[in-house]
Specification:
Radius of gyration: 11 Å
Distance between the termini: 20 Å
Shape: globular
CATH architecture: Orthogonal Bundle
Helix content: over 70%
CATH class: Mainly Alpha
Strand content: under 5%
Number of domains: 1
Oligomer: single chain
Length: 77
């Protein structure tokens, strides 16, 4: 779910920091971001709370957000 990556980068968290906040592991965060696996609903709600968005917003990206994510990813390289 690229949307998790978008919101994580937008809030300035690393995968490890997000994992710690939600009681998960960095490899789980990586799998959710890169391989389209989905966390359980409870975990989605926890992440949405951390990011300050609702669960529906967390699960989708607008085209503008997708473009912003690509720019953020480019800055990481």
């Amino acid at each position: 779910m690229r949307s998790i990556k978008y919101w994580r980068l937008k809030t300035g968290l690393t995968q490890a920091e997000l994992a710690m906040k939600i009681g998960s592991t960095q490899p789980c965060i990586s799998n959710w971001e890169e391989f389209d696996t989905e966390p359980k609903l409870f975990t989605l709600r926890r992440m949405a709370h951390i990011f300050g968005v609702d669960a529906k917003e967390l699960m989708t990206l607008t085209q503008a957000q997708e473009d912003e994510l690509e720019a953020m990813e480019g800055n990481l390289k």
